[in-house]
Amino acid sequence: MADILIVDDDKFLADMLAGQMVASNHTATCVHTLQDGLAEVRGGSFDVVLLDVQLPDGNGLDEVGYFKHARSEPEIIIITGQGEADGAEKAIVSGAWCYIEKPHVIRELSLHLTRALQYRQEKRKVFEVPVALKRKNIIGSSRAISECLDQVARAASSDVSVLVNGATGTGKELFAKAIHENSARADKNFVVVDCAALPESLIESTLFGHVKGAFTNADRDQDGLVKHADGGTLFLDEVGELPLAMQKTFLRLLQEHEYRPIGSSRQLYSNFRLVAATNRDLSQWVREGRFREDLLFRLQAFTIKLPSLLERREDIRELVLYYISRLCDRYGVENKGVAADFIEALSLYDWPGNVRELFQIIEQVFLNPFLGPTCFAVHLPDKFRVLQARAGVSVKKPPHSVAEAIPSWRQYKETCEKEYLVKLKEYSHGNISQSCRTAGLSRTRYYQLLQKHGLSVD
Ligand SMILES: Nc1ncnc2c1ncn2[C@@H]1O[C@H](COP(=O)(O)OP(=O)(O)OP(=O)(O)O)[C@@H](O)[C@H]1O
């Protein structure tokens, strides 16, 4: 049972919709002006708002954001008169669930409402039901990675679409797989679609399949990836790379879960759960017109932002130990020890390629012919040892330079005394009487000082 707010100045239609809602076991509240609608939603706990566009005191589309961000965060279904579809499309972009043209509202409302409520229920579950997580190969115990694992647990307990965002090599695919493996779909397929690697001309047949004779060389029916993902998870890797034309097709697939293999006249249904990943700032791409806002809105119902390795440096040791032990298993050798200077050198680097780069470096270490039972910094490529050497110099420098800059009082006095005598001799052109006079020294004392500093009389 859901709470529905109907904002429409057509009282007849509003009452009819309310009747339909009540017949489906929902509660319905009708208001006929925009101001009344805004007042109701402010204090109410509505799940869905049915919002008319042309209202006597304003345009419903201008207030979609306000309705959407009310306390109960309802889904908004726009009800438009004929010819208002353009504006309604804009409303979707600002976060409305869908729009229905008035002549079809009685017929279409119930399907859209069911989907909106299902989506809402899943979204709620995401925030309410954390589960114990099987994390398998996800290594790290930093705060940043633990927060992401909490999010994986929540996402896995629902069917909501998830967008995993993070720089290259941060583990986006690993996390996407963890969502699948912890979900109710774990025993079905996890199907990876690498959007960056798909040639544009093959995207549709790869995703949707084709029937025999659909094109030259199509000598038999071929299922697409969407069919393989039925009951499981469809993982769109590098979703930002999807061509714009394909983004539209995808949006429809996400909304309807229906597709048609190339050459077929039959619509098929696939019950997949969508997880997408990107290392792009898709909001920025939306602003630049390179990515559809409505698609982004669907994809990011739940977003997990993975930290870079730099943001979780404290995990480096754990990752290194894990990967070394994997390599030892792979090469059938006894597990190796790790010296402190090895981890220290790795921790000084910035890791632009994140965990993938770290693992590649460890693999290089394994190829080092001088590697014994323990990994030392000396086994690392030069760039790490240079970093370590520089860090060492900068740490030791202050006490060293202080010692240099401030000698003992005695040393300082001796140095000055010698410099003075050298200058005195120059000034007097070797004339001893003049030197003694200028300095106010006796001849005996002057000779003693010259001798002490190894200077000649002349
Ligand atoms: N937390 C982690 N624990 C263990 N291994 C990890 C972790 N994060 C990443 N990896 C490893 O790093 C490598 C790259 O991970 P993955 O392919 O999932 O990254 P990605 O973010 O999808 O990269 P890209 O954007 O370049 O495709 C893989 O070998 C993966 O197993």
TrEMBL record:
CDD domains: AAA, REC
Keyword set, alphabetical order: ATP-binding, Nucleotide-binding, Phosphoprotein
Residues recorded as bearing 4-aspartylphosphate in the entry: 52
One term of GO molecular function: ATP binding
Database matches in InterPro entries: AAA+_ATPase, AAA_lid_NorR, CheY-like_superfamily, Homeodomain-like_sf, P-loop_NTPase, Sig_transdc_resp-reg_receiver, Sigma_54_int, Sigma_54_int_dom_ATP-bd_2
Positions of the Sigma-54 factor interaction domain: 138-367
Species classification: Bacteria, Pseudomonadati, Thermodesulfobacteriota, Desulfobulbia, Desulfobulbales
Domain of life: Bacteria
The organism of origin for this protein: Desulfopila aestuarii DSM 18488
Domain Response regulatory as annotated: residue spans: 3-117
Protein name: Two-component system, NtrC family, response regulator
The keyword Iron is assigned to this record: no
Pfam families: AAA_lid_14, Response_reg, Sigma54_activat
Any single biological process term in GO: phosphorelay signal transduction system
Signal peptide extent: none
